[in-house]
Write a structure and sequence with these properties.
- By secondary structure, this protein is α/β, with parallel strands linked by helices.
- It has two domains: about 60 residues, no CATH class; about 190 residues, Vaccinia Virus protein VP39 (Rossmann fold, 3-Layer(aba) Sandwich).
- It has eight helices and ten strands.
- It has an eight-stranded mixed sheet.
- Strand 1, helix 6 and strand 2 form a beta-alpha-beta unit.
- The protein is globular and about 70 Å long.
């Protein structure tokens, strides 16, 4: 039932937008998710008493109530789930000797080390010991690489945040455009650039992220060739290899927030 309600809300752009606004503005102060779980406490106590009657020992001071996990289905963030599979398959099939990732989900970066050498760049470097892995502190608007030097680069669900201050980066209305220009600068001729970002009705959701139209994304990377565009639609369904003209996100159908996954090829030598 709740899944049906949620999908209906997502299909109504104005209602969806208002609901998200309420959650974002007041949820951080009121802990709405925790308040909504209060009704589950009696079940928690019931299960603890049953556990004790069956001979189990669990002290009150060691209580660790997990009130959001008893669900009918396994929840998943469809953007990160699908982009991880998409990106891993594409990079593995291209078999680069080494790969540079800028700011993507670190679990996905770790997976990539199973198939190639990976250098991870972030303003908040990830210092871990792992085979085929190195980390460098750097910014997506000032990458520590020479011009046209990288044959395989990714930055998934990152560009939309640049310049909004969310992760400690400087406020800059042109942050995403500068990030796109910097990625183009370091991409070698014939190289591959793997990008993902939210697509739909173009807007800024300060200070969380931007949402782009597909045309806006293509405009961030002038001179590069579009090899592939795949999407996750608003309802979480993956669509492989679609044409930009076929996408109807943001056309009044409630599909105002999807994920675009783009592969670009580097410019030819001049």
């Amino acid at each position: 039932m709740w899944e049906q309600v949620r999908n209906w809300v997502k299909s109504q752009p104005n209602i969806h937008r208002a609901a998200l606004w309420l959650l974002r503005m007041f949820g951080v102060f009121a802990g709405l998710r925790d308040i909504a779980a209060l009704w589950r406490y009696p079940f928690f106590v019931r299960d603890w008493l049953r556990f004790r009657r069956l001979g189990g020992r669990a002290a009150v001071l060691d209580f660790y109530p997990c009130l959001h996990d008893r669900t009918a289905t396994t929840g998943v963030d469809s953007h990160y789930f699908h982009q991880a599979i998409w990106g891993f398959k594409r990079i593995q099939s291209n078999l680069p000797e080494s790969h540079v990732d800028v700011g993507s989900d670190v679990r996905w970066v770790g997976m990539l080390t199973c198939v190639t050498r990976v250098c991870f760049i972030d303003i908040r470097p990830l210092s871990i010991q792992l085979d085929n892995y190195e980390s460098k502190e750097g910014s997506i608007v000032a990458l520590p690489f020479p011009d046209r030097s990288l044959s395989s680069v990714s930055s998934l669900h990152v560009i939309e945040h640049i310049g909004l201050g969310r992760y400690g980066d400087p406020i800059d209305p042109e942050g995403s455009a500068k990030a796109g220009a910097e990625l183009m600068r370091v991409l070698a001729p014939g190289g591959r650039l793997y990008i993902s970002m939210p697509i739909g009705n173009a807007r800024v959701q300060f200070n969380g992220q931007r949402v782009f139209s597909v045309a806006d994304v293509l405009a961030l990377f002038p001179g590069l060739g579009l090899v592939e565009l795949s999407i996750v639609d608003t309802l979480g369904k993956f669509h492989a290899s679609v044409s930009p003209e076929a996408i109807r996100l943001g056309q009044g159908q409630g599909l105002d927030y999807g994920l675009g996954m783009f592969i670009f090829s580097g410019p030819n030598k001049i």
